[in-house]
Structure prediction request, 673 residues.
Amino acid sequence: MTTVAGADVPLGRLRWHCMRRGLLELDLVLQRFAQRELDGLDAAGRAALDRLLDYDDLELWEIVCGRRECEDARLKGLVALLRAQ
Amino acid sequence: MNVTKRSYDAVIVGAGGAGLRAALQLAEAGLNIAVLSKVFPTRSHTVAAQGGVAASLGNSDEDHWHWHMYDTVKGSDWLGDQDSIEYMCRMAPEVVYELEHFGMPFTRTEDGRIYQRPFGGHMSNFGEKPVRRACAAADRTGHAMLHTLYQRNVRANTRFFVEWMALDLVRGPEGEVLGVTAIEMETGEVSVFQAKATLFATGGSGRMYYASTNAFINTGDGLGMAARAGLPIQDMEFFQFHPTGVYGAGILITEGVRGEGGILRNKDGERFMERYAPNAKDLASRDVVSRAMATEIKEGRGCGPEKDHLLLDLSHLDPDVIIRRLPGIREISIRFAGADPVREPIPVVPTAHYQMGGIPTLYSGRVVAPKNGDPDAVVPGFYAAGECACASVHGGNRLGCNSLLDLLVFGRSAGDSMIEDIGKMPGALPDLPRDAAEGSLARLDRLESQKDGESVHEVQAAMRRTMQEHCGVFRFPEMLAKGVAEIEAVAERVSRTGIGDHSRVFNTARIEALEVENLIEAAKATMMGAANREESRGAQARADFPERDDTNWLKHSLWYREGNRIDYRPVHLKPLTVETVALKKRVY
Prediction:
């Protein structure tokens, strides 16, 4: 599941990981995010998103809601973008 | 296109709770198995289950499996098969302790036993008073269960095919199931998974409704595949609606909010539940509250410009209570409804939540399809468990906490049946028909070559609107008749969908188109079943037939795709060892 940092992650795979989660809450937030932002991400952005999407669903939802901080400092910008939606 | 053949003792489609429980049984028996899943197993929709698993452990109150069985039969409005229900309730303590031994982090009592909480419809002494029967891991029981079962499967060396979508069942000349075809998303390549035993654990089909609490993944894939293979789908007219889904988004607002004092109001600010359930009011059972809300909307007392929703008001509560006890609900309301419940009410609407029907099975998990006068004729090689299956333990209406129990009990029993049946098939796998993958390849080819195709998203939206409008909480004869025609028209559009993206690697447009082809079969089965069943029972509430009719309708409906027709199977009224729970009116 883990992606090597910097490796180019296929957009389709990221899109799928955004649009099919276990929780409806995440489906709604991440699908909207994917529609707006995905095509504009560079390789580093894609790798960061891939790492974020590896989080367990409940953890990820808590991160999106701001009830939990993301330990990975490299994901802070992405998390801020998601929280701002 | 080249088709790779892969051979296993057993193939399991779906890696939620039911699929993982069955896989564990098979892997620990040393069989060579493949588990296919559209997503990584711990991202299955089981993760969303919060409440708990029902089991008569008796840790907090005196309890007995027979009382649990009585509650489940009554909850089902007597449509449940009583042999399956007895089996499930008797097995419940065993599967829960088994899960505990697997490492499931259950919440504990002070003396270290599994903590149990009360839940709607679960009573002691044959309906006398509420009993604490729900075993929970805080408010994340489904999440804990998925992770426990996944880890256990890793230990047992279960082989997972993650991000593979099963396409179609492969059947032999006698109708026996010989495996499935599947597409690997990463490459777009198609394989045939040949197996002595094939289990569907593909979850529900709640996405057929506009207002749905289900994650996007619940597209009825198993139902679509079974229907296309000529097999019947049972009792799909019974769809449970949760009273409080967030209007426009569907996210479930737990009953706990009303437990904390939340009040449902109509456009006039009236606490309308006082008229429908003077005692229980806002805390009446799900079907009662959902029907009351649907009536308010239908009679013009709904809120908003379209008068199409109601309000869940918490503003009279101490803001501290909301902030401290309901932080997750507050966040959901702010994010998805733009309303902070400290100051404003949450807009809510009855929302499709759980499919009671599915692929008909015995309590052994073996799939049945009537043949030569035998209503319980087994389809050799085919098994189903979890929400996609209909054992039938939930009948017309499911009790809370019986769904996680269902997937544990029937995941395990299906696994045991597969082990037993595989044991009777020594030697090589049966030959596959030469055209095993032809149907799947033809579907993929059509998608690729479709000219001026219908938009998948538009067709799906049309299906969801049709189901919501014509086959919702209350069902009216003229709406159902129109709904049958409309859903058939939508199905016609589904057969002409097209995609703009023709790439092979991770083509999500293709996968979505395939999902809609499955979901429409589940939707047709639901609409046809609802239009056909002329009675009100459990979740099926017909305005023109307001009473339960045991003389004519104490039977399972079976919908067949071919000819869009309905047939029937008798309900199993005889339990395994105890007396039948006699028919009576379902009142609480």
Q: What stands out?
A: The mean pLDDT of chain B is 95.
